[in-house]
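Narrative summary of target 7.
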Amino acid sequence: MNVRIVRKLPPLEEIIGKHVLSKKAEKQVAKDIQEVKDILEGKDKRFLVIVGPCSAWPKEAVIEYAKKLKPLTDKVKDRLKIVMRVYIQKPRTTTGWTGPVNQPDPLRPSNIGEGAKYCREMMVKVIEMGLPIADEALFTHNAKGFLELLSWVAIGARSTEDQEHRIFASSLDCAVGLKNPTSGSVEIGVNSVVAAQYPHTAVFDGYEVQTSGNPHAHLILRGGSQGTNYSQKHIEEAIGYMERHNIKHPSIIIDTSHDNSRINGIKHEENQAKVIREVLQMFKKKPELMQTVKGFMFESFLKAGAQKIDSKAPEKLDKGGLSITDPCLGWEQTEELLFELAEFKKKMT
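Modeled conformation, tokenized:
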């Protein structure tokens, strides 16, 4: 193989053993997983909101964000089920930083062993505060170190057509959202949900296994190369495909970032709020759409916007909660938007 051995990784069991969830937190994760499923099944009428940094770095700022999010979550818990994004792995269109699980310091060489420790510790701390967390399943080979921590999982636009990721989604106990591909195709996004809801034969840990299929696999609309796809037309198109395939618990989450936040070729964090408000106006005219559109995903951090990593000027890197990947809403905007969502849900229920 065309590889060079860098180092032997520490056993995942060793990393897990150093950062173990308390029994109380284990019970909370199980409760959070079930509450998300209840929303997708229509038993729980709250909005599901997946919110947090585009990428979970640096750890200190992520923890500070979680400290702000927890009391806010408690205030709106009757109307919103908030799950915090703690995204430790980042897909790239070509090349670039792939997240703290591979490179805990983006200004230094990759170190996957240290990255796994860094991320496990961060995730456990957030959960112990009482917050459910979410991550994108990008590198499925290291899922063992983090999977039992997650209350919701995403399969990204670049992975959604990949058979391994579809099978992985089919094996999960928690709900999993599958995005439409980067082309923006709603039909292909639904095809991914179909695949994830069915059982598959696969190899896990040296065993031939049969996955059970994930009845809580659902669609995430995130826009694509042809533009946005959160309009009534796109939502009704998705509903039609899901009805045709007899999808269990047909559900849609609107991802307000990525290509849904791109206007005139430029992504801007404030466009995320615009997307949410446009969808809420749509709900006022057609409230029956809320039977399928179960919530939203948006990217937010302590500070608004984003920054570039400049290895030639490391002193300029802001480590105080400014995204180093996609632009995020700042905390004040986040707080305003979450209260707005909660108030809307109250009026419409």
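Residues 23-307+315-348 form a domain with the TIM Barrel fold (CATH 3.20.20.70).
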